[in-house]
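Journal club side-thread
Mid-discussion, someone asked how the predicted structure for our own chain would compare to the paper's figures. Pasting it here so we can look after the session.
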Amino acid sequence: MGINKETEIQANIQIGPTDLGMVRIYVEGKGIDLPMDFEPEEAKEIAEEILAAAMAAESLNK
């Protein structure tokens, strides 16, 4: 599956700090239970990538 392939899979995502000082991205859905822990600096890089993708998507919609 790639970025541009649509799917019918539904999932929930939660993002928050852990008690060990990590940032957890938790994805849960039918057949999916995926906790991903990141160092705070890694999480900031991911956030920057998400913002860049959002801006690129907005420019395609204009």
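Post-session note: The mean pLDDT is 94.
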